[in-house]
Structure formats: structure tokens, C-alpha cells
Amino acid sequence: MELLIKGGRVIDPKSETNENLDILIKDNNIIAIGKDISVENRKVIDATGMVVAPGFIDIHVHLREPGFEHKETIETGTKSAAAGGFTTVACMPNTNPTIHSKKTVELIKNRAKEVGKSNVLVIGSITKDLHGMELSEIENMHEAGIVAISDDGKTPMKEEIMIQAFKKARKFNIPLISHCEDHNLSKDGSINEGKASERTKIKGIPAAAEYLIVKRDIELSEKLKTKLHIAHVSTKEAVELIRGAKHRGVDVTSEAAPHHFILTDDIVTHHNTYAKVNPPIRSQEDVDAVVEGLRDGTIDIIATDHAPHDEDSKKVDFNKAAFGITGLETAFSLSYTHLVLKKRLPLIKLIEMLSTRPAEIIGIDKGILKPGKEADITIVDLNKEYTIDSNKFYSKGKNTPFNGDKVKGKVAYTILGGKIVYERGNIICS
Asked: In principle, which of 52, 199, 310, 365 could form an S-S bond with 8, CB 3.0–4.6 Å?
């Protein structure tokens, strides 16, 4: 049976398409895009009044499996992805065991094939056990299909290790995704160093902990001519460094998470551990700089840093609480509400940052609506207003500081390889 998406506003940044069109799907692929395609003998999705976009891609998520299944699993994490309109996610390596071997890469890929509701790409660790001392089996992991390397959650502090890692990334033509944190400066910190840390007396993490490593890694990338991707940019100084590097022609890209371009550290209290994230929520000046970075292209994409946690990891003293925010199911609505509706970003640019550009950075043939391409498609209802309710998340993690916020723009359908996997609040079981 063919699937026809009828009457939607098709927005495809790659071809600069932005008009009402029909999309016809057969098996896994798009076979036609045009006006007035016949509905005869076809399953029809009436997309009138909605936007039809390439499936969203998040290159920074934590699926927790293997090792931390009480926080999230590949099954619950990909259901959460589908509910957020994400047809592809790339999982970070801070699992147990760490993703530092071919065996673990294959385990995750096989598990995703069994239970996944989105495509799952795997990011291998830079160093064994994320200890920053010895390179992982990068060559073997590349043979198994990793799309990038990262020690996300930690930063290898030894420059010689990073030089080796950059050379491996260059050899296999994959990006090195850098979690930029000088652990000597951030040690024992929990929130942004500034007014909030002064007010709460909670130890702060200075902006320099981020931007000094951004500076180091840009310099290494420039010297070694290697792809560098800066994760979760949160400071104005980091934005300025990335902007300058791009102007010099350095092969650097970057991402921002919704919490870093929406929230300020004014929300931090001793009891609000859902606001504890690494890098921390920063000042209004930093938020403004990140928004400007998104607007002018310094920051290339939006990624969630989806970091689900069990309640026992959050409902403790602030200093002991785990870092992280659950983000897949709220990313589009928050971005649309705070960027597009506030006229900070055009809708087509937002869609590009959620689909086309992430595909380019990670090097996959997705993020485009075109006959012959795989039918990974997200349909959103821009007029739908709702209140975020974490109790309704498919993710095991309910740890979001946005719970109770009113937003606009909701994913209505997620189509993965030509099959509907999410429809108006419900995961569709095949």
C-alpha cells in the first residue's frame, strides 16, 4: 500500500522548497512530490494546514543502554525521539561498558534494529572508559559503523591524546565532537559561576571552563585540518571563538541545546535540580549570544543533549544531583515557540538546523525530501498549543525544567522509512 501525504506545506531546506505539495511514498522511499497526486488506492495523511519536513536528526543524545537501563533504554529513547519528530539520533558513548569497542557498537546497532522507533547512529568514545588516558579502538569501531568520536560528559585534558584523536578522525573523515570543559576549573561545580552561585552559595562553574577548551580544540583542528564539532555551546566567549574560526576557514561546526538558548540561571534554586545540566544554564548575556550565534550561522544546529535520569538521581541535594535534562520530546515546540514565533529565526532555518544540517555534519544521506530518497518525514502542526507534561513523556526521564510551560507547534506524525511510527500522541506498533 502506498502512503500519500496530502496538502501539507512542504519545507525542504536543501532544495529551498516551501509550498503546498503532496508527497507519495512507496515501500521505504519517496517516489513523487507534486500537486494534486491522486488518492486512489492509497493510505492518505491529510496534512492540510501542517508543515511537512525532512525527519529531524539529533546528533547528541544519551540512550543509556547498555548499563543504565533504569534511566533509559534504546526502546524508550527512540520512542521519545519519534514523539519529538526525530527519525535519526546519534547516541553518545557514556554507557556501561563505554562505547569504546567494536563489540559494543554492534550490540547497540543490533538492539536498535530490534526495538528502535528511530534510526540509531553510534558515536564511539575518544578514550577507553572516558578516562582520557588511552585511545579507544577507533579503527575497529569505524569498521563497525561509528559516525563520530567523542568523550561527551568528559574532556580529554592531555593535548597529546587529543592530537592522536584528531588524526584518527581525519583518517576516517569523521567529526570529533568535543565536550569542552576544563575539569581543573569546573571541579565540584554545579551551576554557572555568577549571580546565581553568589545567591545560592552553590559552587559555580566559570565560563572559562568551556571557552578555554573551545580555544584549544579549535587551534588543534586548525593545525591538523580535522573536522571539529563543538557540543552544547553555552557561553558568549565560545560563540565568539567559533565565529572567528569560521571566518578563518577552520572546519568547525557547533550546536546549541534549547535550554541554553531559552533559560537563564535565574531559575536555579536549591530544590530545582531539574535545572542542573552540564554545561550549566548561563546568564542572559550568554543566552543572547547563543541566540545570535544561531541567527547568524555561527552555531550550525540544534541538538538536545537528551540526558534522561531516574528520580533518585535528581531528587537529592543539588550538589549530589546528576547533570542532565530530558529533551527529545520538547525540542521542536520549544525552538519554534522561542525562536520562530519571537522572530529570531525563520521556520525554514529552524528545520534546516533540525534536519538537513545535522545530516551534513554527521555525513549521512538524510535530511532531504526528494524522489528516490528514504521517506524519513516529520509533520508538525504549528497551530497546536499545549502545556508540556513530563508525565506523558515516552522517555523514562521526566527531568525537564520546562514542565508546565505553554508552547506552540506540535509534532503530529513521524514517518520512518515510509512507515508511520508516531501519530498524534501515539507510538504506532508495527
From this structure: 52
How many domains are contained in the chain?
A: 2
Domain that holds residue 327: 55-362
Query: Do residues 16 and 118 share a domain?
Result: no
Distance (Å) of CA 335 to CA 278, 355, 366: 20, 13, 21
CATH code at position 124: 3.20.20.140
Domain co-membership, 172 together with 26: no
What confidence tens digit (pLDDT) does each residue in 69-128 have? Answer: 999 999 999 999 999 999 999 999 999 999 999 999 999 999 999 999 999 999 999 999
247 vs 109: CA distance, rounded Å: 38
155: left (phi over 0), alpha (psi -120 to 50) or beta: beta
In the numeric block, which cell numbers belong to residue 265?
A: 540561571
Domain of 379, CATH number, reads 2.30.40.10
Catalytic residue set: 305
What are the DSSP E strand ranges found in 153-233? 176-178, 191-192, 204-205, 228-230
